[in-house]
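User: I want to check something. If I give you two sequences, will you return the structure for each one separately, not as a complex?

Assistant: Yes, each is folded on its own. Here is the first sequence with its structure:
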Amino acid sequence: MDRYRGLFAEQPDSPAVVGFLELLGEAIGNTATLSDPAAVVLSGPLVDCPAFVDRLRDCLLPHLLEPSTMVTVSDLGTEGPLTGASLHAGEAAVEGIWAEYRR
């Protein structure tokens, strides 16, 4: 991730960065079109790199079906995916316990 952070910070207009962000923006935009969210929340190991987030937001906005869709960074920052997975695992475990209890 350090290499990517450096690339976004030092060479934000390189063809590799531009191509990557265009593809990522299109992919996220397509997913948002299917689910029609009020907000797209970015998280993961690169959200603490402002150059990445700003450029991704710019590449994502043209692909959103609803222009008013908010694009923001998770308050959990780089820990967002791990926290979400942990919460889901806990909920699934409790659900499984209750499903067995109701039998």
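And separately, the second sequence with its own structure:
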Amino acid sequence: MAGAVDCTMKPEDLQKLVAMPMPYGKHKGRVIADLPGNYLAWFAREGFPQGELGRLLQLMHEIDHNGLSELLRPLR
């Protein structure tokens, strides 16, 4: 299945969301936790990239979609 990623969450993933910048595209350089919801939803519709980046984008989409972004505040 194209766009399928391993969505197993690792303990350090939340910290990575607030530290790892988007490596390409319209929002290049912006940390994943600060990506707009419509951009994350686009990936959800079109397919997440492979590897760690895709896994983290999928996790951030779930956090954003479910209104849980406040979970990341203490990590900033």
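Because they were folded independently, the notes below concern the second chain alone. The CA atoms of residues 19 and 31 lie 6 Å apart. Residues 51-65 form the longest helix (15 residues).
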